[in-house]
Every structure is written in C-alpha cells, then in structure tokens.
Amino acid sequence: MSIFARIMIALVAVLHLYIAWFGIFAWQSQGPATFPDLPVSLFEPTSAMAANQGVYNLCIAGGLIWSLWIRDAEWGRKVASGFLLFVATAGLFGALRVSPDIALVQAGPAIIGLLLLWVPVLQQRQRKS
Predict the structure, then answer these.
(1) Of 7, 26, 49, 110, which has the highest C-beta tally within 10 A?
(2) Contacts from 72-75 at CB under 8 Å and sequence distance 24+?
(3) Would you tell me how many other CB atoms lie within 10 Å of the CB of residue 74?
(4) How do the domains of the chain map onto residue ranges?
C-alpha cells in the first residue's frame, strides 16, 4: 500500500471519527449551527438517531484504521477497499437524497483512496501480462 493511499485512508478515517463525535456527542449543541435550515426543535428528539449514526461512523473509522495496521499488503488493501466502498456508497446515496455536497466531502475522498489503492496494482498486473 503506497504512502499516498495510507494518507488518504487515514484522512477518511479522521473524517468519520469527526462525524461519529458529532453524532454521538455534539448533535444537540452543534447541530443547530451546522444545519441552520432545520428547526431547532428537531435536534433533541432525533439525538438517539444521530448517536446511532455516529456509532456506524465510528465503526467505519475503526475499520479503516485497522486496515492500516494489517501487515499483509493484499489483505490490508482488501479490508481498506471494503470500508472505502461503504463510505463511497453512503456518500453517493447522501448526495442523491440529502445534498450534492456530500459526494464531494464523503464519497470523493473514499473514491480517491480506492484509486490510490488499486491503480498501482492493476498497472503492475498489466505489465506482467
């Protein structure tokens, strides 16, 4: 795994650690300022839902961090790919359902990470054949 792929995976993990913190701990305090189009009265009754989503994001971050510690390069690449695909899928879905900005912020880095993981492997395989 290249250093650039590792950096992108780490950045995506940090983003999801932040999203997890936000959903679990800061939904009611920071949510109204972050989402000014939503009514303030919405944040308290949806705090359990936001915390649940935060836990999912924490699991994504954990999986990405785990992939960086795997010594076997192929296994690490495959684990990272799985978690990056989860992020890209969620980001594209969010872009369609919530805001197009989500594609740039969430799916974009994940897709870049996937390219950094797999383009060198595919190039090397092509050279061998």
Answers:
(1) 110
(2) 73/1
(3) 10
(4) 3-128
